[in-house]
Amino acid sequence: MFRGFSLCLAAVLATTLAPAVSRAGSFTFGFDFYHAGSVRTHSWGDLDADIEELEAELRYTGQDWDLVVHYEVEVEDAPVGRCELVLEVVDRDFPSPPIRLTLPLDQPRKYDDDEIIYSARISTRIAPEHVRDPGRLRLHAYVLPVGGGPTLDHDSTRIKLRR
After folding, report:
1. What secondary structure does DSSP assign to 33-69, as a single string?
2. Could you count the other beta carbons within 10 Å of the beta carbon of residue 138?
3. Are 141 and 154 in contact (CB under 8 A)?
4. What is the pTM (predicted TM-score) of this model?
């Protein structure tokens, strides 16, 4: 009986310690002080971040939507890769879960004294069933420490519809 119990315990521990490969790592879930449009920002030690630019546009490709986002983020007193940018696309009038993208801030464009500047233009496809009214979409951006922590900065912008 003890041998059966130890085999069962070994199986449970193996499953817990080495979970199956999944796509869960491509999504970020954080429990923080933010809710779309209502955010408190915090300093975390000496770590500081500022979203300097945030622009977004949406184009219909004939089959799906192409979301293009341009951002510039300055991070101060942090090593490269210490922060990430979380982008959330929300419908201003329809209560639905946001479309969330998490971008690691690990490829700086330039350095300015103790600031590391990240700037990029990203593009992603969104299935048509996820866009109810393209004219009512808004983009919220949050800078967070990798692995969780307080919101270091946030910004929001209207998503421009391009035809």
Report:
1. S-BTTB-----BTTBEEEEEEEEEEEEE-SSSEEEEE
2. 17
3. yes
4. 0.71
